[in-house]
Amino acid sequence: MKKPAVFMDRDGTVNEQMGYINHISRFVLLPGSAEAIRLLNNNGYLAIIVSNQSGVARGYFPIDLVHEVHDRMRALLERDGATVDGVFFCPHYPEGKLPEYSKTCNCRKPRTGLIKKACEQFEIDLENCYVIGDRCTDMELADRSDLKGILVKTGYGRGDLEYVFPHLPYKPFHVAEDLLEAVRWIVKKSPMSEV
Ligand SMILES: [Mg+2]
Ligand SMILES: [Zn+2]
Q: What residues act catalytically?
């Protein structure tokens, strides 16, 4: 049976915005992230991370670090009873340093490749999906994918909301303080809601 998904940005949305997470010590979950993801788990939503990690192409850190960070993320969340169903990331950047990752790809957000990849791996009810993120690129991803975008005010969110969105043709469908508030809002509206 198809399930709806919530596609979540990683840096600035699930974990603290620290610029490039170029060391495992820079990965710190934001307060409420585990509770938010647990709420998705308990309400029939797939919890899927979609993240740009161009630091790989730029030569700032190896791709193995990205996997290590994701293992840490899953472990920290699991400790609080929250499960991430899928993690998809783009290591590319057109003007990078490492030839194998330096290209124009179809997965660097706001391009929609990561969501397409997730749809190949999971049976997703695309009618009822959301994208949650802290940047205009996340909202553009939602727009291009015909999904509802929720901007969180953590990470770059507050700044993008004030200074960038006024000049853009697309807007967030909804704005929330943080991931937990965004997920509570989704779940409350959901026909599957048990909260
Ligand atoms: Mg972000
Ligand atoms: Zn890519």
A: 9, 11
Query: Ligand 1 centre from 128 Cα, in Å?
Result: 22
Give the whole-angstrom CA distance, residue 47 versus residue 97: 32
Instruction: Tell whether pTM > 0.90.
Output: yes
The first and second tokens of residue 1, run together, are 């049976």
Class for domain 5-189, per CATH? alpha beta
Per-residue pLDDT for the chain (195 aa), expressed as one digit of tens each?
899 999 999 999 999 999 999 999 999 999 999 999 999 999 999 999 999 999 999 999 999 999 999 999 999 999 999 999 999 999 999 999 999 999 999 999 999 999 999 999 999 999 999 999 999 999 999 999 999 999 999 999 999 999 999 999 999 999 999 999 999 999 998 866 554
The answer to whether 21 and 155 have CB atoms below 8 angstroms apart is: no
> Which residues are found with C-beta within 5 Å of the ion, ligand 1?
9, 11-12, 134, 155
**Domain definitions of the chain by residue range:** 5-189
| Ranges of H-type helices in the chain | 33-42, 63-79, 113-121, 136-145, 157-159, 179-189
Neighbouring C-beta atoms of residue 163, cutoff 10 Å: 10
Of 163, 53, 46, 158, whose CA–CA distance to 107 is shortest? 53
How many angstroms separate the first and last alpha carbons of the chain?
A: 22
CA of 145 to the centre of ligand 2 (A): 16
